[in-house]
Each structure stands twice: as structure tokens, then as C-alpha cells.
Write a structure and sequence with these properties.
With about 140 residues, the protein is mainly beta. Helices cover about 0% and strands about 45% of the residues. The protein has no helices and eleven strands. The strands form three sheets. It has a five-stranded antiparallel sheet, with no helix packed on it. Strands 3-9-6-7 form a four-stranded antiparallel sheet, with no helix packed on it. It has a two-stranded antiparallel sheet with strand order 4-11. The mean pLDDT is about 80.
Length: about 140
């Protein structure tokens, strides 16, 4: 610990990554409100990991009681805009699909049903993350 008055805003003791959900992704770093208590005043919930192969994400269609952001980030340092994969996401009860192959941030207002997420084509791994800025637990509200 230094004498820097802003040191309290840095969480240096990042816990061991959580195990992956399956062969589609790497182990992941994540933080929930309990984890983030190490940073004074922080409340977000997040996870970040590499998607390493194509396929369907395991989560069924659902919504949340809070806003959620998903991040799809390319890993080529010379072309970060290129995701290196083609991803399809379904929105709403009608499962309207959107597809992209560039790095993207996707916003789901609270209550908006989303998923499945399908990595249709994979040229190289990319970073995927979710983020709840207000720190609500990631409670899934199953689709009817």
C-alpha cells in the first residue's frame, strides 16, 4: 500500500479466475457487489472472459431486473474493430435477430428479453463481458 490518497480506488487483490462454463470459453474474471467491496464505493457486477470457439451461449432467453451491457471486443491489436467472429443475438419476445462481426457494446434495458447468443463463425478468440453498473445481482427472469 502506498501513501497515495487514491489507492482505495484500486483493487489489486484480484481473486483467482472463476472456472469456465464449458469448452466455448476461458476461465473468467468477474466481480459482484461482494467482490467489489474491496474498492470504496464501487457497486458494479461484471464478468470478462475469452470466447474461444463458435456455438450457442448456454443462457436461455431471459431478462433482468436491471439494465445490462454486453461487450464483444476484438483481440487483434492492429485491428481492434474486427471482432474475429460473427455473432447473432436475439432481442425481445419475438427473438428478433441482430448480427455483427465488429467489436460491439450491446445494451439491454431492464425487462428486455434477450438471448440466445450464437457465435456463428469464429476466426479467432474475442473478449466477452457483461456489466451491470448499479451492482444488481445477475438475476435471470426466465422467458415465459
Amino acid at each position: 500500500m502506498t501513501d497515495n490518497k487514491y489507492e482505495r480506488y484500486i483493487l489489486r487483490d484480484v481473486k483467482k479466475p472463476w472456472p469456465s462454463f464449458g469448452p466455448m470459453n476461458s476461465d473468467f474474471l468477474g466481480g459482484n457487489p461482494e467482490f467489489m467491496k474491496g474498492i470504496e464505493g464501487a457497486r458494479p457486477n461484471f464478468a470478462l472472459y475469452y470466447v474461444v470457439r463458435s456455438g450457442m451461449f448456454a443462457e436461455p432467453p431471459h431478462s433482468h431486473y436491471a439494465d445490462e451491457y454486453l461487450m464483444f471486443l476484438g483481440t487483434d491489436p492492429h485491428d481492434m474493430k474486427n471482432l474475429g467472429a460473427t455473432v447473432e443475438i436475439a432481442f425481445g419476445e419475438e427473438w428478433e435477430k441482430a448480427e455483427f462481426s465488429t467489436s460491439a457494446m450491446v445494451y439491454f434495458p431492464k425487462g428486455l428479453q434477450h438471448c440466445p447468443i450464437h457465435v456463428k463463425k469464429m476466426d479467432r478468440p474475442f473478449l466477452f463481458g457483461h456489466f451491470w453498473p448499479m451492482g444488481e445481482d445477475p438475476v435471470l427472469v426466465p422467458a415465459d
